[in-house]
Amino acid sequence: MPNANQIPNGSKAMGYYLIAIVVLVLDQISKYYFEFAFEEGDTVSVIEPVLNWTLAYNRGAAFSFLADQAGWQKWFFAILGLAVSGFIIAYLRKVPKSASVLSLGLAMVLGGAIGNVIDRVLHGHVIDFIHVHYADVWHYPIFNIADIGICVGMMLVVYDMLFLEKKRTLGQNL
């Protein structure tokens, strides 16, 4: 008889797919707003001196990695994002029901990955607008809701991996 902590999500994965859709919709609505309310490079201070809305286009990956290339990176990152999304969609059905932190993290990554893939395919770049900085001393790369979903989701996946997975495989209640 299988360990009760190892029973797969199965149809329960639908709830996690809905979480991914919420991340995706919030991401796309926010990008739509900034794309039409701002011109590239426009900045509005939100919380001085640490947060601005700044419209920026990222033609590369995280931290503009490969942004200076001739355009092949658009399709490379779009295909990579679709492959990761396809894997997560299939894997969420197989994740144990007891692994809710892992499933939530994967759902957030899924919503963010699809949000950025949509940008790459429709616009040729990712629309970013959240600019965290400290005055003119330090600037974090400008990002978006999809990036938040991906980063927070990956933190949850790593947390699960480091602190919860072993308990689950040993059959302990979480």
From TrEMBL:
The chain crosses the membrane at residues 15-34, 75-92, 99-118, 138-159. It is an enzyme of class 3 (hydrolase). Coiled coil: none annotated. The active site is at D128, D147. Keywords: Aspartyl protease, Cell membrane, Hydrolase, Membrane, Protease, Transmembrane, Transmembrane helix. The keyword Ubl conjugation does not apply. Pathway: Protein modification; lipoprotein biosynthesis (signal peptide cleavage). This is Lipoprotein signal peptidase. It comes from Moraxella pluranimalium. The lineage of its organism: Bacteria, Pseudomonadati, Pseudomonadota, Gammaproteobacteria, Moraxellales. The gene is lspA.
